[in-house]
Write a structure and sequence with these properties.
about 325 residues, alpha/beta, four-stranded antiparallel β-sheet, 11 helices, globular, binds iron/sulfur cluster, binds magnesium ion
């Protein structure tokens, strides 16, 4: 099946004072299939949210290509842009910021149905159905956001996103502010919805345990670039990039294995306004060699099958050996 999201060589630049250009996203490529969850992980400032904002056309890219539902979104204007926006929705960390405090829950969810052109006479029923789908009693429709718990508010955000019937939802730290038990409930809800409808998620989080649970594939970002991408088992089971190894060494992640030397993350990430030469991770990488300071490593297939951008990561095993020639 065709990918619902295709990002190719995406670049997002911000201009700072004195003509400084910040390459917030610097040549990122990935795909998301229907029914798939792609996790985007990395420290804050790595460019994760900026990727999502570019996908939603909140931020204009400086280069590259974004296709959503098979459609190049770069040139969309007016009505076409509005139609596109229904394909992709965003759920944010704090629903307080995205829910109107003066608007009742029912009206908030109904708004999504209006965007989608659902006739007035059907909307009350559809609002009840949507609340039910996210596990909320329909009685909450007459309440205001401040009368709900954090988990309930996040369910409302999800109901509103579902209301426009999107193909993909970007969840930007969507469960990060919730208690552990509530977080698990919301993650399970997202999984159930995905199984029912084939929704794709772009799941952005700095929390690797959440990522391990939620994502089918995981992309690790560092200073605006992907440094590793593969399945959860590849990236967490046998990480190949020293940065991924360092992230995993810093927190216990169920099922994650430590490979290679113990890498500890020292210091803060460098400023994206003044990225290091060569491999951007080299000032913090205990394995760095001369080539790391001079030459930028590209993503390449490494041992285990994932892609990683590191000069020293072990290469992929050669293919199966040919059958030995049999003597006549
Ligand atoms: Fe470390 Fe060099 Fe690999 Fe960069 S390329 S992660 S500096 S070993
Ligand atoms: Mg962010």
């Amino acid at each position: 099946e065709v990918n619902v999201v295709e990002v190719e060589d995406l670049r997002v630049h911000f201009s700072r004072r004195r003509g400084v250009t910040v390459r917030a996203v610097d040549g990122v490529s990935f795909t998301v299939a229907p029914g798939e969850t792609l996790g985007l992980a990395g420290e804050s400032g790595s460019g994760k949210s900026t990727v999502a904002r570019a996908l939603l056309r909140i931020t204009d890219p400086a280069g590259g290509r974004i296709r959503i539902g098979g459609r190049d979104i770069a040139g969309l204007r007016g009505k076409n842009l509005k139609t596109f926006r229904r394909q992709m929705q965003m759920v944010y960390q704090d629903p307080y910021d995205s829910l109107d405090p003066r608007m009742k829950i029912g009206a908030t969810v109904e708004e999504a149905l209006i965007v989608r052109g659902v006739p007035a006479r059907e909307r009350a029923t559809r609002v009840r159905e949507l609340l039910d789908r996210v596990g909320l009693p329909s009685g909450l429709a007459v309440r205001y956001p401040h009368e709900l718990s954090g988990g309930q508010r996040q369910r409302v955000s999800i109901a509103r996103a579902l209301g426009v019937d999107p193909a993909v939802i970007a969840c930007d730290e969507a469960v990060s502010a919730l208690d552990v038990s509530v977080r698990a409930q919301i993650l399970n809800l997202l999984k159930d919805l995905q199984e029912d409808s084939g929704l794709a998620y772009l799941f952005i989080s700095h929390d690797l345990s959440t990522m391990r649970f939620a994502a089918d594939r995981i992309a690790i970002m560092y200073l605006g670039r992907l440094v590793e991408i593969g399945t959860g088992d590849q990236v967490f089971g046998a990480p190949r990039h020293p940065y991924t190894q360092a992230l995993l060494a810093a927190v216990p992640v169920p099922g994650a294995r430590r490979t290679g030397p113990r890498v500890r993350l020292a210091g803060e990430p460098p400023s994206p306004a003044d990225p290091p030469t060569g491999c951007a991770f080299h000032p913090r990488c205990p394995l760095a060699e001369e080539i790391c300071r001079t030459t930028r490593p590209e993503l390449a297939v490494k041992r285990g099958g994932q892609l990683a951008a590191c000069h020293l990561a072990p290469e992929a095993e050669p293919g199966p050996k040919p059958e030995p020639e049999r003597n006549p």
